[in-house]
Amino acid sequence: MSVAIKSEVASIVEPVVPQSRECGTNEIVSDDPGRKTRGQTVLKYAGSLVGQSMISGSRFLTSILIGSFCGAAELGTYALGFSVLMGFHCIQLSLISRPYTIYGNQVEGREKRELAGSILVQFFIFGLLVTLSLAAIVATQYWLGWQSSLTPVFLTLAVGTPFILLRDHARQFCFAQLNVRHAVIVDFTSTAIHIAGLGWLAWSGRLSAVSALATTAVASGVAGMVWLWLDKRAIRIVSSRILSDFRRQWVIGKWDCASEITFTSQFYGMTWLLALTLDNASVGIYSACMMSIQVLNPFLIGINSVLVPRTAQRFSEEGVTGMHSLVRQTTVFLGGVTVFVACLTAIWGPAALEFLYRGQGFDIPVLVVTALACGVVFEVVGIGPENGLWAMERHDFNFRAGVAGGIATLISAFTLISAFGILGAALSFLIGQFVTAVAHWIAYRHATTRLA
To answer: Domain check: are 364 and 315 in the same one?
Structure first.
């Protein structure tokens, strides 16, 4: 869940100092800078929620259909493939899309279009590297005779991942440009084709992890092509500046990328540990349990999309004292809401999941859902100090907190999964989130004390 939050927040964070922005060929003009800034924030907030609702809804529907029509093992295979996809997405987000969100709002006119062209070429190069790396994995599996249920998944991802990432790049680009209308068009196009494809696959009996990922790739590819046509005038490719632009992005993106990889590994690495120690069916049940706590995603994404830039603004205007007050308020408010929702999830979540997956007779362990819900509470408690470290530009501290949580998750997983199975994985997630939250608070207090 944290990965989804970070990804969406990256698309809507804007500089503290308001500037005039071009949205493709349309320019937003206002005589009142304060009113313009407030209007832009509300517009980004609403557009982000609309787009994220469509994307999250289609992903939720995919998991429900695969689990209901194909069973826990196939759902586990899909979850493993999706974890690989999210790993590449986080790298792209940190090194390409997020730096453009920052630098793209510092330039105007031709300079902005050339930067957009440089970012697009970097994306195509990254997509090619993704395809080659996944194709190499498939070739190695065939050469060593290690074919498994994941071999066709890797082959599908080798072809489809660049198209899925293109849609994500388009969404980030549109929000960075404040072109919410184009972002919603991209999301609607992708979601409509995706749902239609899933419906046909389920009706014809062809639904599987591989066909679902292929459908996602086709829908994303079409949406990405639509974006390229809509925003073609906002992009100008100048080959001489591609390398220099990437070097500048690397300066701010390296710690961010390391942090994203750490969080992604901590969140999705559990599915691979379950697959290695147990089986794909266990991965499917664990993934189904994770869905019960993802009802908080739209709320957390929406609130944090405002809190991240607001924390940076408070630090800029009022210093450590003002920012610390906001961090405390964030922790109390988000923590209280999350505790309430977590209690409801622990009570009614298992029954709701068993109803959704009644066609395959899923047995959803109550203790697993409870442990995952408690883990989300600790994750949310760490959002305030994490935002504070982000505002102070201490990305290295966020990375170290993620490493501490990742190590705790890994050590506990090897001990608990063998003893308690899926429950052990959920307890490892809980321990990892607790350690990460504590590490965030310690790092935050250290950073603020040094500044004070």
So the answer is: yes
